[in-house]
Write a structure and sequence with these properties.
The complex is a heterodimer of chains A (243) and B (217). Chain A is α/β, with parallel strands linked by helices and 243 residues long. In chain A, 39% of the residues lie in helices and 25% in strands. Chain A has 9 helices and 10 strands. In chain A, strands 6-7-8-3-9-10 form a 6-stranded mixed beta sheet, with helices on both faces. Chain A has a 4-stranded antiparallel beta sheet with strand order 2-1-4-5, with helices on one face. In chain A, strand 1 and strand 2 form a beta hairpin. In chain A, helix 3 crosses helix 4, helix 3 packs parallel to helix 5 and helix 4 packs across helix 5. Chain B has 217 residues and is an all-alpha fold. Chain B has a single domain, classed as MetI-like (MetI-like fold, Orthogonal Bundle). The longest helix of chain B is centred in the first third of the chain and has 37 residues. The radius of gyration of chain B is 21 Å and the shape is flat. Chain B starts with 5 loop residues before the first helix and ends in a 6-residue tail after the last helix. The chains are: A alpha/beta (243), B mainly alpha (217). The interface between A and B is medium-sized, with 30 and 22 residues.
Chain lengths: 243, 217
């Protein structure tokens, strides 16, 4: 069974149709990168996968949960799906440790002692254990993003979504975040990511999907997609992004 | 004719206690109502948000004096005779609720929407989002305007003197009628208002700083 199954999804914002019948499946343990120009619908697609955007038609199921707009069902789905945003979105009024422990304790109702252990573990995983008691504003962008990843991991998700997570970072800080993601991929995490980091997609993603004008224009194993693009649009896109 | 001596002074001072009590009651009851209205106003439920915005608009569009007259004189037509303090507290609470609801709605809305997205993505319920993520941040934003409004409220309680309730302003007026020393009497009254309001303004600034501890720059 697919970890993520997207079938013929349509999504419009008013008159503007941003997803025009998108189908995609991600197997457990697979890393799938979505690339494309801004406005191609790639971020919208990702946000549909955890229900941040409602779809008009089609079907989505994630980690065995069918997508629905019912609040309770959506929460159950989200317990199994982590998302990391471009702008980190840490909670600024509480410490790094509290950011990580909040949802496992409140949403999942886990034992505080276990949650604390888990928080230390995930912070160690992203290499920021010493920042447990720091406030988000005192961290660099790269560190904040690693904490955001740790915060999602603490929920022990079955699928992780990454929405252009390095786009807001200075070039010298993207490396530390990408390294964390690469390690996650090696550990077998199922990952769906929207990215502008072509070399990362090529190296880490099993499958790369090229979106164009609200559709999946071309997709396949990353190596062949990057070395041997079939469509004019992908050739043009890859050519442009080399510069 | 009486002179303006210690007995008159203490009469005014005691009446300041009523002003404070009235302020406290109106702020607490109005604040509780206002918080509920703010959240109703932001609710996706059209009935709730429609009711809240109708209430807020109505109350903000009529003088608090009219609310006071309606609760004090209006209800007496139906045989409901509210004691002056009760009518005064009720009217001021209604007034406070409409204004605080708007101040607090604005504060809640100033929390970036990404905070809602991040917390809902972590499977928090709406109530949990408010409780753990949104409100703690909104409170920081709300504190200075709320205390600013409290200062206004202290001064606006003087309006209830028109239904015969003796608070600070009314006490000053009574003493003035007996002594004909308006300058001395009202200087004392004004000074007492100042003594109440000035520390409140200072408190607001202090709280602003305290609430910001832990957040750099």
């Amino acid at each position: 069974m697919s970890a993520v199954l997207i079938e013929n999804v349509h999504k419009s914002f008013g008159d503007l149709e941003v997803l025009k019948g998108v189908s995609l499946s991600v197997e457990a343990g697979q890393v799938v990168a979505i690339i494309g120009r801004s406005g191609s619908g790639k971020s919208t697609l990702l946000r549909c996968v955890n229900g941040l955007e409602a779809i008009q038609s089609g079907r989505i199921s994630v980690a065995g949960h069918a997508m629905s707009q019912d609040a309770k069902a959506l929460r159950e789905l989200r317990k199994d799906v982590g998302i990391v945003f471009q702008s980190y979105n840490l909670f600024p009024h509480i410490t790094v440790g509290e950011n990580i422990m909040l949802a496992p304790r409140i949403a999942k109702g886990l034992d505080p002692a276990d949650v604390k252990k888990r928080a230390t573990l995930v912070l160690e995983q992203v290499g920021l254990l010493e920042k447990f008691d720091a406030y988000p504003d005192n961290l660099s962008g790269g560190q904040q993003q690693r904490v955001a990843i740790a915060r999602s991991l603490a929920m022990q998700p079955k699928v992780m979504l990454f929405d252009e997570v390095t786009s807001a970072l200075d070039p010298e800080l993207t490396g530390e975040v990408l390294t964390v993601m690469e390690n996650l991929a090696k550990d077998g995490m199922t990952m769906l990511l929207v990215t502008h980091e072509m070399s990362f997609a090529r190296k880490v993603a099993d499958i790369t999907v090229f979106m164009h004008q609200g559709k999946i224009w071309e997709h396949g194993p990353s190596q062949s997609l990057f070395t041997n693009p079939q469509t004019q649009e992908l050739k043009a896109f890859l050519g442009a992004s080399l510069h | 004719m009486n002179s303006f001596g210690w007995p008159e002074f203490f009469f005014i001072l005691r009446s300041a206690g009523w002003t404070l009590l009235l302020t406290a009651v109106a702020f607490l009851i109005g604040g509780a109502l206002g918080a509920a209205l703010a959240i109703m106003r932001l609710s996706a439920n059209r009935v709730l948000s429609g009711f809240a915005s109708g209430y807020i608009l109505t109350i903000q569009s009529i003088p608090v004096l009219m609310v006071l007259f309606m609760s004090y004189y209006g209800l007496s037509l139906f045989g409901i005779r509210l004691p002056a303090f009760f009518a005064a507290s009720l009217s001021l609470s209604i007034y406070v609720s409409a204004y605080l609801a708007e101040i607090w709605r604005g504060s809640i809305e100033s929390v970036p929407f990404q905070q809602w997205e991040a917390s809902s993505s972590l499977a928090l319920t709406k109530g949990q989002q408010y409780r753990y993520v949104i409100l703690p941040q909104a409170v920081r934003i709300a504190l200075p305007p709320t205390v600013g409004f409290l200062v206004q409220l202290v001064k606006n309680t003087s309006i209830v003197s028109v239904v015969g309730f003796v608070e600070l302003s009314r006490a000053g007026a009574l003493v003035n009628q007996a002594t004909f020393l308006p300058f001395q009497v009202f200087s004392v009254v004004a000074a007492i208002y100042f003594v109440i309001c000035f520390p409140l303004s200072r408190l607001s600034r202090h709280l602003e700083k305290v609430m910001n501890v832990g957040r750099s720059h």
